[in-house]
Amino acid sequence: MLIPRSSSCCARALRLSTHHHAIHMAVPSLLSSFCHLFPRGHGFKPFPQFLSSSCSASPLSSLSSVPSPKPNKRVKTLVAAALLEIGGVKIAKDDVVRESDPTNNVPDNIFSKIGLQLHRRDTHPIGILKNAIYDYFDTNYASKFVKFDDLCPIVSVQQNFDEVLVPADHVSRSYNDTYYVNADTVLRCHTSAHQAELLREGHSHFLVTGDVYRRDSIDSTHYPVFHQMEGVRIFSPDEWKDSGTDATSYAAMDLKKCLEGLARHLFGAVEMRWVDTYFPFTNPSFELEIYFQENWMEVLGCGVTEQDILTRNGRKDSVAWAFGLGLERLAMVLFDIPDIRLFWSTDQRFTSQFSEGKLGVKFKPFSKFPPCYKDISFWISDSFTENNLCEVVRGVAGDLVEEVKLIDNFTNKKGMTSQCYRITYRSMERSLTDEEINQLQWNVREAVQGKLYVTLR
Ligand code: DAH
Q1: CATH fold label, 84-352
Q2: Which of 197, 209, 272, 298 could form a disulfide with 149 if both were Cys (CB 3.0 to 4.6 A apart)?
Q3: Which candidate, 4, 9, 6, 12, places its Cα nearest to that of 301?
Q4: For residue range 401-447, what is the model confidence (pLDDT) as tens digits?
Q5: What is the Cα–Cα distance from 444 to 426, expressed in whole angstroms?
Q6: Ligand 1 atom 13, closest CA
Q7: Which CATH class is domain 372-456?
C-alpha cells in the first residue's frame, strides 16, 4: 500500500505522502498482467451472497449481534476447504478465486489463508498479543471497549476505501496493491474498513482485530496476509466541554495518553516519540515510535477521526480518535521471531514454544537451514510490476521463498528495460535439496514467462 518498503516493515500503513505517491504512480497499469481490462465502468455485478446478507454490504449487522464463537478448533479443518464460514458468512472458493475473470486477482494461496484466523488462537503469538492488548483496554477502561475479531475479511470497495475517505485516485485502490474479488469487492487491506459501519451501529468504544490482505513484494517482514487491530473511541460534547480545550485537542491528548500506556504495557518502560504524519481518515494524524534495540521503531498509526466520517455515520456532534496497529510487526519484536512466514508454520517446533497468556517468551530457532539463491533476468513489458512477479513466485514456491530482490536494472538504446531479480529459497523447517530448488526455479521461469508477458534472458 502506500507504505512501501522503507523502514516501516510489516506495519504498512495506509497513508499518503507525495514520495510514496510518486513511486506507486510510476506503475500506472492498474491491471497489469492479471487484469487486462479496466475494471470500473464495465458494469460488473458484485456477488449477491457477499453483498446481500452479512458479508459485504452489511457485514457487521448480523455479526456483531451474534456472540463470536470461542477461539476455534475448527480452524484446522478450514485449511483446504472449498467452503468457509466466517462470522456466519459462507464463502465459496469459486466466488473468491476466478482466474478467468479480469476483475479478480485473488490467487489460490491467498484464498487458503482466509478463515485461518491466527488472531483467534490463544496459544499463537498473534492471539497472545491480541489478548494482551485486550487486557490493557479491559483494565483501563472497565471493559468498555467492545471487541470484534470475527468480521468477514471480504468487504466492499465502499467499506475499504470510500467510507474512510481514501481518495478515488489513491494508489492503494489499484489492482497492483489490493486483492479484488470483483470490481466492487475486495479482501480488506486494513481493519479501518469496519470503522464506519460500527459507528453507524452506535458503538462508541471498539476494537476490531482481523486478517488483512495486500499485494506486496517478498522479504522476511512482508507477507500478503497479516493481522491488524483497530481501535476507536468516541466522546460526546459533555466529556470535553469543561476541559478548557477544544474537542480535537481533547481527543488527541486522550489518544496519546491511551497509546503511550499501551506501549508501556507491551514493551515496559521504553522511550517513545510522536511523529506527525498523514492518513486519509484522521486529522491530525500521528505515528508512535518506540526506541527498541537501538532503533526507533514505528508501532502504530493513529489520529483524530475526520469529522466527515462521524457526520456521515450519525455522530455529528461527537469527536473521536482511532488507531491501527500491525500485530506481526509487534509480535516479531516481542517474541524474537525472525521471519514473518513462521507465523503460518504448523511445525510443532514452532507452535509448541508459545502458551496462552505468555507475552514475550523468546522464540528459539530450531535450526537455521541454508538459503539458496537463484537469479532470473528478463526484458520487462509496460505492464510489469514487482508485486505481480512476487505473486507468481509465491504461487509456485509458496512459503519456500524468503525474498525476491531486484539486483540489476538497465535500459538499452532501444528503450528496452532488463531486470534481474535474486530469489532466495529457504525453508523454515527443513533443508531443501538441489533438485527441489532447481525444479522450483524452472517452474518459476515458466510461470513468469507465461503470466507476466516478459521475455526471459
Ligand atoms: N489503516 C491504517 C493502515 O492500514 C492504520 C491506521 C492509521 C488506522 C491511523 C487508524 C488510524 O484507525 O487512525 O495502515
Answers
A1: BirA Bifunctional Protein; domain 2 (3.30.930)
A2: 209
A3: 12
A4: 999 999 999 999 999 999 999 999 999 999 999 999 999 999 999 99
A5: 15
A6: 302
A7: alpha beta
